[in-house]
Specification:
4 helices, about 140 residues, two-stranded antiparallel ribbon, about 15% strand, about 30% helix
Amino acid sequence: MVVSPKHRLAKRGRANLSELGEEVFIAHIVESPFRQRVIQLFAKHHVPLHMDIQLPTIESIKRFVQMDIGVAIVPRMCVRWEIEQGLLVEVKVRELHMPRDLYLLYRRREPLSHSAKAMFDLLKPRSAPTGDAPASEPHAS
């Protein structure tokens, strides 16, 4: 979750879901599984979710949060720069854990280009592969 540096939670950097019932959430107007998970999480904990403002782009959501109009739950990769620059503050919500899985598909019998191999190396898991992971890494010819 991100807030304006002026927001009451900015200095704390942490919050419980129960503390967020009074917040105005700025949400993405597009329906997504991530959005549904957030809605379900608030309902499960019986916390009101006030999505009073819904905008079409992540950029517009970030600007509204910067202006201290509300708070937002957005992917960290979308706000990394703004957090580093001090334009937004990340607030960790104890009950909000939403890891995303990324799957990379490729043809095992086809060699990868150098750029595809570099991308694979960048994206491969840092932990031991599970049963669903490829048995061997691709190689470039």
